[in-house]
Design brief:
The complex is a heterodimer of chains A (380) and B (312). Helices cover 72% and strands 5% of the residues of chain A. Chain A is mainly α and 380 residues long. Chain B is built from eleven helices and 14 strands. Chain B is an alpha/beta fold. The chains are: A mainly alpha (380), B alpha/beta (312).
């Protein structure tokens, strides 16, 4: 443990001594986040479109009214057939269908809504959370007014619809959904700014991990391996130092984003960022074991980082790129980093929604680290 | 102190070290001589636990390097050919770092770093960055980092490459003192005079095999009275192979080498050889600039055993 801590502190001191590292760590991400975060702010424009499909009944009208109350979207009423076409053509984020005979469904404890969507865009994530919150709310309220029958249930959404939105925020139903447009825009700015932080994190750590290459070349790596420290202590010392450095960078960026955009972060910020940084460290270490020269490291890391950031939706939302690109994005770690950070920005705490980025980044981390350690230990 | 038995290592099917045996007693200064590619560095890498051998055993004292490498490594210090230091740090910072990595702490660490700085003669420059040092000073810190934990066995892989004579003398004296204080030394070098000065026993290695081993006197007996003849030519020979063939024919199978316009051969009767080959050189219009005739030394032994010059 002493050796691991000693390596971590030593490497951190060395890395933070370099003015170029400070620029790459803090100055560049802040400048880029400022520029591209502002783009997200200015590019808000019209809220995205979504469709409501509802039959002509009193409860159906009240239930659709609950949905249409969300100002983050522009709502249109359409038939289900038309709604499906609009969704398929990506002209709307999704269609929310109020199920026929909603009272019976609510009585049976089933959701009175059904969602038709094409792909899980950022806007869809916001919308789906909102719908989920409304469903929970309606089902819970039904328990309260169960004895009064359908007429009593109709009064619940009716009274909610008649109430200013701000009053809903006082209730405990998924508060993040009800902050409406402001929350969505802040989340969008924060996620875009975080995207650039992720890119610089990858640049920083792939550049920093190249010290392992230099150490092998200069023989200090070999000398380290003849000391009292074991191979795993040395490896974890390096991983630890890169991880702490990544966290330093991220912490400064989160503080910056909080000051500039007023964004706050959800419960899972610390564990998710920790996982994300660990994944980047593992990836950088793998990269270092595959290179044969420092020039190769610089060229390869630039190409890989920039291209995967493009494909992963770091520079622009993936909603605007063709289908094929969106499919490719699913295998890019940055895509899952952005998805995860988006969940964190929206304070999503439901594991049934947010499990994918965690699982996929964990798998990537294990794979990259396995390759790196195998390669380094083979060279023993 | 060190027992190496039947040590072998090959890369891509090419044998680098082949069934090597080495027995080095505690307190001995052992010179390992061999040209580039002879297998010296691979042998040292295996002894220090950096390279896994394909077969064989390595005992450092009573500890088996292959079974308990970390325990065995406590007894050894490595001075690699490369300057294995952090050049942006001062000598003191480097020594503090490596001392900690060897498990030294607190007052013991500070005291040991001060002692080592004194041994390597760099107390006055201890707070200067290593990158600003001369080659010789860097090499001294390189040695310092290897002796911080007071190893019983110090392995030095060509520790004086590319440095000025003054620094070389300082290093040689330092190593000699360490050996006199009881530290066992393994010293590899291209420089015969260094090995002759430092080592009590010498092993000659080529193509991964130990060709001969013994004291300088014992090794010199292998060549008897053979002297080395170096004929320095004014200009490079156009067709070296043709000339070599003519020389071999003329001297009835005697071995010759031509490198950098110098013809080299061994002979117990140098005058006879010269009388034979000088007319040939004249007939070939080859101008001689100098002729050296050296009495038997390690270089002669090396040439005799390997057919190559040590610096090949």
């Amino acid at each position: 443990m002493y050796s691991v801590l000693h390596i971590i502190l030593f490497r951190l001191r060395q890395m933070l001594k370099e003015p170029s590292n400070i620029i790459l760590l803090f100055v560049m991400p802040i400048v880029f986040s400022l520029i591209f975060g502002s783009f997200a702010l200015d590019g808000g424009g019209e809220p995205p479109k979504a469709v409501i499909v509802a039959e002509n009944c009193e409860l159906c009208g009240e239930l659709s009214g609950l949905i249409a109350k969300n100002p983050s979207f522009t709502w249109e009423y359409q038939s289900e057939e038309e709604a499906r076409t609009l969704v398929a053509e990506r002209k709307v984020v999704a269609a929310i269908v109020v199920e026929p005979q909603p009272y019976e469904r609510i009585q049976a404890g089933e959701a009175p809504y059904r969602v038709i969507m094409n792909e899980p865009t950022e806007d869809y994530i916001v919308l789906s959370q909102f719908v989920r919150g409304i469903i929970n709310m309606v089902l819970m309220q039904h328990e309260v007014v169960r004895d009064t029958g359908e007429a009593g249930l109709v009064q619940v959404p009716h009274s909610i619809n008649a109430t200013p939105l701000i009053e809903l925020q006082q209730q405990s139903y998924q508060a993040y959904l009800l902050k409406g447009e402001d929350q969505a825009r802040k989340a969008s700015q924060s996620t875009r700014a975080i995207g650039f932080t992720i890119m610089f994190l990858m640049f920083t750590l792939s550049g920093t991990a190249a010290v392992i290459y230099n150490e092998r070349k200069d023989f200090t790596w070999q000398r380290l391996r003849t000391t009292a420290a074991t191979f795993s202590q040395i490896i974890w010392g390096y991983i630890g130092s890169f991880w702490v450095l990544g966290w330093l960078q991220f912490a400064v960026m989160l503080l910056f984003i909080y000051i500039v955009y007023g964004s706050t972060w959800g419960l899972y910020l610390v564990p998710f960022v920790s996982l994300m940084i660990f994944m980047v460290v593992a990836f950088s270490m793998m990269l270092v074991t595959l290179i044969k020269s420092k020039k190769q490291a610089e060229a390869l890391s630039s190409i890989i980082v920039v291209s995967t950031c493009m494909l992963g939706g770091v520079y622009w939302p993936l909603d605007i790129v063709p289908d094929m690109m969106q499919k490719i994005a699913l295998v890019i770690p940055q895509y899952w980093m952005m998805q995860g950070m988006s969940d964190v920005a929206l304070n999503i705490t439901d594991w049934s929604i947010m499990w994918k980025p965690w699982l996929i980044l964990s798998i990537y981390s294990i794979l990259c680290l396995t390759v790196a350690i195998r390669k380094l230990s083979k060279e023993q | 102190m060190l027992k190496v038995e039947q040590l072998s290592k090959s890369y891509d099917g090419k044998s680098i070290v082949d069934q090597l045996h080495l027995h080095i007693k505690a307190g001995e200064a052992y010179g390992l001589l061999g040209p580039n590619g002879a297998g010296k560095s691979t042998t040292i890498g295996m002894i220090s636990g950096l390279i896994k051998p394909q077969s064989g055993s390595i005992m450092i004292g009573e500890v088996n390097m292959l079974q308990a490498p970390k325990q065995a490594q406590r007894y050894i210090g490595i001075v690699p050919q490369e300057i294995a230091l952090y050049l942006k740090m001062t000598a003191r910072e480097n020594l503090m770092f490596w001392g900690r990595m060897y498990g030294l702490k607190g007052q013991q660490l500070k005291q040991r770093v001060a002692e080592v700085l004194q041994i390597i003669g760099l107390e006055d420059r201890a707070n200067d960055k290593v990158g600003a040092y001369s080659g010789g000073m860097k090499r001294r810190v390189n040695i310092g980092a290897a002796i911080l934990h007071e190893p019983q066995l110090l392995i030095m892989d060509e520790p004086t490459v590319g440095i000025d004579p003054q620094s070389r003398n300082h290093i040689l004296q330092t190593v000699k003192q360490l050996n006199e204080q009881g530290m066992t030394i393994i010293y590899t070098s291209h420089y015969m005079e260094e090995v002759e000065y430092l080592c009590t026993r010498i092993g000659i290695i080529d193509h991964g095999k130990l060709l001969a081993e013994g004291s300088i006197e014992q090794l010199q007996q292998l060549v008897g009275n053979a002297t080395t003849i170096h004929i320095h030519l004014e200009e490079a020979v156009e067709d070296e192979q043709d000339l070599l063939a003519k020389l071999v024919t003329l001297c009835e199978g005697r071995s010759f080498t031509i490198k950098e316009s110098v013809i080299t051969t061994l002979s117990n009767e140098p005058q006879t050889v010269l009388v034979r080959i000088l007319p040939l050189l004249e007939a070939e219009h080859i101008t001689i600039s100098k002729i050296d005739i050296q009495k038997p030394n390690l270089e002669t032994v090396f040439l005799h055993l390997t057919g190559r010059s040590l610096r090949d």
